[in-house]
Write a structure and sequence with these properties.
The protein is α/β, with parallel strands linked by helices. Helix content is 42%, strand content 15%.
Length: 286
């Protein structure tokens, strides 16, 4: 297959949904750290190569023939100059023209997170870009926070009463796919959110109603949350970034609601209630 589009971040949350959006619509390649996992997720017939940001020997096969790429930063990689730039240099040399980058809501005002530096790097290197600046994923609750909800009936994030304009990763992927498949999204920054901003008390209430058992929001302090992340095995860099993101949320910086999903897709974003209904099995006791 003469792939023109590269998808990274699969079989992760958003990358997997981007693959689903592109199937039957374009020739694409998946650059995956674990090729077997990707093929199990998408089928053996998919064009899939091993891609590792930290292994330059994987770059040539990954970027060969690619014109556009969907870029996801691996959570464990926080040193942009050391860990991300070499791969982007190789992409540029191979002829990649357009990068659709999964970024963060409010990143333009947040120099601490790696996404800010990656956006700068993409611009400086002369790529055509589309920055999909996503609010907090609804699916964080069915992945990162799945065990605490399923096993302990609680949500423990340090954001107090602040509201978050959660977005379903299926909507993020649909917007990203449009940017990869259509003209008119070049050099655009899209802040994508859901249609409402909710606090975690409301999140817990919706989960409780749908799951048929009480789910508590415990709102720990940032320090307690950080220590808990380390205690459960998170790497220091990841724990710091996650704690930083929730601290920003605590100050109300994640509550903005935008019409971008509606404008680009021609339909409303998936609601939080619909997400909980669709993913209900994730939180049912084993």
């Amino acid at each position: 297959m003469n792939a023109k589009i590269l998808v990274t971040g699969a079989p992760g949350n958003v990358g997997s949904e981007v693959v689903k959006e592109l199937m039957g619509k374009a020739e694409f390649r998946v650059g995956a750290y674990h090729v077997e996992s990707a093929k199990q997720a998408f089928g053996d017939e998919i064009d899939c190569v091993r891609f590792d940001f930290l292994d330059p020997t994987t770059f040539a096969a990954t970027f060969q023939g690619i014109e556009k790429m969907f870029l996801v930063r691996p959570p464990a990689l926080s040193n942009v100059t050391r860990d991300i730039a070499p791969a982007l240099n190789a992409a540029k040399a191979a002829g990649v023209r357009h990068i659709v980058f999964l970024s963060l809501q409010g990143v333009e005002n947040n120099r601490v997170v790696p996404h800010h530096k990656i956006e700068q790097l993409i611009r400086e290197m002369g790529f055509v870009y589309t920055f999909v600046r996503a609010s907090f994923f609804m699916q964080n609750l069915s992945t990162t926070h799945r065990a605490e909800i399923r096993d302990h009936n609680e949500i423990a994030v340090p954001v107090g009463k602040a509201k978050t304009s959660f977005i379903d990763v299926r909507d993020i992927a649909a917007v990203a796919a449009r940017a990869l498949l259509e003209n008119g999204h070049e050099n655009m920054c899209y802040t994508v959110t859901g249609s409402e901003a909710l606090d975690y008390f409301q999140v817990a209430e919706t989960l409780s109603t749908t799951l048929g058992r009480p789910i508590r929001y415990t709102h720990p302090s940032v320090l307690k949350f950080f220590r808990q992340q380390l205690a459960t095995g998170s790497k220091l860099g990841y724990a710091l970034v996650l704690s930083g993101l929730y601290t920003i949320t605590r100050f109300g910086n994640a509550k903005e609601v935008t019409p971008v999903v509606q404008n680009i897709l021609g339909r409303p974003p998936i609601t939080f209630k619909q997400f909980v209904t669709d993913y209900r099995a994730s939180w049912m006791p084993q």
